[in-house]
Design a protein that fits this description.
Helices cover 33% and strands 29% of the residues. It is α+β, with helices and mostly antiparallel strands. The relative contact order is 0.17. The structure holds zinc ion.
């Protein structure tokens, strides 16, 4: 499944964003971080976007289900 290229996020102001290497296992678990590296007048835009991983989405679904269970009394 090669979805990375097709779903590459864009900065609203500057266009396609660069994939950031994940620093930690936790970051890798969360998904892929993208960074806008557009630089203007010596300042980098620095917008970031997280494309959540399937593992993270599954965990969030689980948590949501558990919360729903807990609130039904
Ligand atoms: Zn930008």
């Amino acid at each position: 499944m090669a979805v990375e290229q097709a779903e590459r996020p864009v900065c609203v102001k500057h266009g396609p964003m660069a994939l950031r290497a994940s620093g930690t296992k936790e970051q890798a678990f969360c998904g892929d971080w993208y960074l806008c590296e557009h630089t203007e007048f010596g300042r980098t835009c620095g917008n970031t976007i997280l494309l959540p991983s399937l593992e993270l989405l599954a965990q969030l679904d689980n948590q949501r289900a558990n919360l729903a269970k807990g609130s039904k009394r």
